[in-house]
Amino acid sequence: METHLNQSKLRYFILWTALLCLAYLSFELFYTNYAILSVDEFWFAHRTYQYKSGLPYRDFAPYKTVLGYYLLLIPMTLVQGLLKPLFFTKNALALLNSTILFGTTLWLRRYFSDRALITTLMLLVCAEFILSYSTNIRVDLLAYWFCLFSVLFLFENKFILSGLLIGLGFLTSQKAIWYIAATDIALAVHWLAFARDWKTIKQILIFNLTILLIISAYILFWSHFSNFSTVMHSVFTEASIMYHLDWYNGTRKLFWFYILSYNPLLFILWPLTLISAVITYPSDHSYTKRVFLVTYVSVILLCLIPYKQVFPYYMLVTIPAFLLLYSAFFTWFYQVMRNPQPIRILLVGKIGLTIFATIYCLTIIWLIFFLKLPKLYLLLTIIPIMLVGSINGAMRAFAQPLILMTIVFTGFVYPLTLYAIRFPALNSGYQHSVMNLLNALLQDNSDYLAGIELIYNKTQPIAGMRHLMLPAIDFLAHPSPKLREAMLASLYESPTATSASVIHDLEKSNVKLYVNNYRMVAVPTVIANYLASQYQHFWGGIYLYAPEIPAGTHAALIKFAGNYLVEAWPGQSVSIDKHVIDSGKTLSLTKGIHTIHASTSIRLKLLPENVSGLLNPAYKEDQWQLMLF
């Protein structure tokens, strides 16, 4: 009878886990085609494609360690086209994430309760930052999955394999260093609190030596193709430079407002999990792992809070951490809420719990008002009040249902409602229309400018304009030694670029058009003025070659052969190569020098051919806010 009951529970658990993972996968497959591709996805796709034909460190300066790029290159090269390789890669990541979430949840069933695992999985697959960013074409989440499996093998006392996996995580992204530090600190706490033997110290040393061996092998391997100093500088020095860049300090509050508005429960609930480390009960089989995970995740989040560049997609670092932490926490929570056995409060006592809950509630209130979060999130204070009240012997009868209702509302209902309201603005119709038109206009092998590498297999030619991060824009306008240090070749930046050099390079270039977006509208005024003199709005975000010719007689260079519309004052005649043509008329010009005479300035506007089928009337106007996300 008991065996049959256990099999039935297992079937229901697998069914619920599969349904949640399938729901996540289905949403991501839809989201890939629906939502605007982010600016970094274009950049990472272009960066990844370089690994197809070149070797990092030797042929180009890589951004981050390189294992993740080779992993992304596999799906990216399986299909052809302008956007299909990006979509295919994103869908492959969605499938990978779903499979890992499903398999890991089943694995964690060895240690934590079914109900806790389902609760945790629901919180994760419904979290906005996971829905929006988990399939981004980036290497970071791949690194964090390696770190997740590293912890799972620690639970199995397989320290060499654990060190190998977290070492591979570092070879995918240096941000795995947070997980390495968290693991070591959690292991140290575990030794102090529970083990205190030489065997554990030996295992910790083996774990770290394995990591060191993996990273050392990586450095020596790539030094063979380049040189030791180049690899060391790329792996360690450049990462440190970007970490210390304080350009984004002024935006941290805005980023945290965004993150907590859409994902309040996962982050704000974390400090409350500290209670589970000081409360146990006689049948508490997961206590040592819970203390380990509370320590482990707290280290990661305490590193994240002061981080200077806390972009919303950086929160992907918390996915494995939250999966582990809340699986342990909710296992403890459900047991404490219904456990008839007496609980033990370690170190702090009931008064200490009450003080902690009071400080925690006041912190929530301060955070909501400081960041101007939705006032409805004040409901989060119900959780500590009910939890501590129940542990102290009061309100036990209705504490659990009230806490669960609060979790449902603050973890699912309200943030997902906010997300649904914002969702229509993420429609990618405009972006896809502009990208298809851009691709058609560049079939003559001409170049473009966009401030970001929009086409994964084509490189923009202007140094200093390939990757217009905000610090790079600021550097063009106001060069400074500190910003110059961050103008790294691995980021497609140029420490020697200036506004003057950009204009000089544009004059000598084969740039036929530029694509307007939030980065291009922020370029220094002198560059913006030059672009306005050479390019004119064509369709959507495309500004096509249309040089302005000043009054008088000039030997003007026409960069592209084709038909041109003459734009001048109404009724004015213009002489081009001694042929008179009226304003508003078109003529065919060859590439090269032409003698042009006009009494006032005129503009010669290039008229492209064979693109009329791509000119969607709905996207005729420049809607640069919709081009990049």
Please summarize what this structure is.
With 629 residues, the protein is of the alpha+beta class. Helices cover 56% and strands 10% of the residues.
Description:
The protein has 629 residues and is an alpha+beta fold. Helices cover 56% and strands 10% of the residues. The protein has a 4-stranded mixed beta sheet with strand order 3-4-6-5. It has a 4-stranded antiparallel beta sheet with strand order 7-14-9-12, with no helix packed on it. Strands 8-13-10-11 form a 4-stranded antiparallel beta sheet, with no helix packed on it. Helix 14 (287-304) crosses helix 15. The two termini are 56 Å apart. The relative contact order is 0.09. The model has no long low-confidence stretch (mean pLDDT 93).
Kindly list the characteristics that best describe this protein.
alpha+beta, four-stranded antiparallel β-sheet, 14 strands, 56% helix
